[in-house]
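1st attempt posting a full record on here, be nice pls
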Amino acid sequence: MPLPSSETIAAKAHLLPLLRAALKAVNGHRFEEAEKLIASILEQDPGMADAVHARAHIALARGDLAQAEALARQAIALDFHYESYHITLSQALLGQRKLEEAKQSAGIALGLNTKSPEAYMALAEVFQAENDLQSAHNVLRQGKQFNVDHPEIRCRLGNIEAALGNMDMALTYYQQAMLARPDNSLYRILYARSLRKRRLKRPNPTLVATVLPLLGQPGVSPRDLTGIMEGALMLDGGIQSLLGVMDMPTERLAGIMAAPEFPRLSENELLLRWLKFGEVVHPGLENLCAALRRAALWLALGKPAALAAHVVWLDALAARNFHADYLDPETPEERERLAILDRHLAAVIAAGQLPDAAHLALYATYRPLYRRADAEALAALRWPGSIAELRRVQLDEPLYERQLIATLPNATPIEDATSLLVREMYEESPFPRWNQPIIGFNATVGQMVRSALPLQRLPGTKIDHPDVLVAGCGTGMHAIIAATNYSNSKVLAVDLSRASLAYGKRKTLELGIKNIEFAQADILKLGQLPQRFDVIECFGVLHHMREPLAGLKQLAMLLKPDGYMMLGLYSEVGRHDVVLARQLIAAHGYKDTLDDIRRFRADLPKLDPELCTRLRNSLAFYNLPDFRDLVFHRQEHRYYPEQLGDLARDAGLRFLGFDFSEPQLLRSYTADYPDDPQAVNLSHWTEFERRHPNIFSNCFRFWLDKHV
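the predicted structure (as tokens):
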């Protein structure tokens, strides 16, 4: 929230310190503190418009749109000539879908200050709400003329270009915003997302140089960069030369690796960073990694001195394989040779010495170091800096997680047979295993829900310190996002798997996040908890229960009367290919074991090439826990949209709407069904999904409340 106008400052100078403190508290979402300061100001000067406007800003952030409107009008009555008041009024009216009044207020703000970027953006928001994207685009273009370097205007232009399908222009605007404010995580994220469907077909060093530093940046998903990174790798001369020889006998490939002219993969920054942060998706690159690993194993036993030149890229490959949970299949010959290498390492470690770095890195491309019987002894040895990252990822962190397991409380007993079966699966394969820093956006509950459900007219809320439950938190990513999304929140994150919880707790400690408590619990028993929650998030969990409704009823018991719940459930239509894969698994007798999961994935191109091609479009295909969760899960329910309403009603809840990361899906629906302006008719959604079968291919993501 901006400081008041210079005229106001001059007239109210004696109250300025209090006002500055109040605005700082507002911007920090410390609303109770801000309200006390504002009350003190208004006691001394009831007509101070900026103090009244600050109250309007608080009401807007909380989602109390009617109150925000009333307070903004009061501030305008006290001082008509400050455009910020009219912008706040426009936003309050927009949230209530009073679009003509909102447009008028934004226009007044623009008339008061024709250079105000906030006024241009407010007016563009109204046009967007009317689905008049061209007018919104024109307004922002006009605003850009007065604010040439304003990154937020460029970002919003990117959003509109993306909605219009002009992805080249969207990419340009997002890149401009990101370069203007490289510290802004949202701009980085949007820029990366705009690259999601791009495939690099010819060399583009400038683009690659821009993208490469994004790997490892908070919030940026490496999956968005796959087409650029792997396109660049497949165009790399060294990689191309290896693609031509990777199918030759392993001994011959090992001989090529020992030759001085072998490509210097350990100096290929693109390859090293992608192996450490990304997921290998391209079949050619995937097969090359497996072939080079196999040849390196032959080299280690035949010419061990020659292996030293490969330690750096083997270290990076070990990181990729560790995070993919060793998805690649192994030949019997590989296992025999790996056993020899294993015995060699064990003998060296037993003698109190650290094995050769290249041998350790090579072994770690096949097996995680922390699962070795001598892992504790290995961790006690001094390691060279060249493989310090290998030690951290494969020894120190997993061994620390083992210690953390003992510190995790049990919030409920786990007695249900299906729950015990699912727990066993996730103890073996914690899901998902992630290494990318993630963040949320520090918003109020009202702001979060309004952003998720832009078409709804929801009551305001004064939840300034929300209690949040993440039911089925897995390895903590969801819990950390919730803890950083909801301002001033306290998060309880529960899961069946202690291995997954320990992973999440370690990541939380690593990131310095202090508002999450982890506990082992079964959703079927959560009703016995004494706490009640303002927000409950349960994504991708209930559909793995024997009776999802029973779990949902337990969650409904824990939801406060004015709280909100977000669920993620599988779609019957969206999981069509998964159902076909499960039928193949059953028909050919594959078991839910790690070896059979790897074997089925390797066999799939022969069993059903077309199905394999479609499943490869799912990024769950590229690491073992994800792939196991995709097609081998021991328990799964799927739904049509119409069934979601019944499920909600049976639990005493109300369906509020679907939450889409891509707003054009919602616009497409409302264009097809103008009789459903709030997009809550689930019969319509069932029809819409049949025509667009991929819109819920991951999950339905939707919100509920208790209001009836």
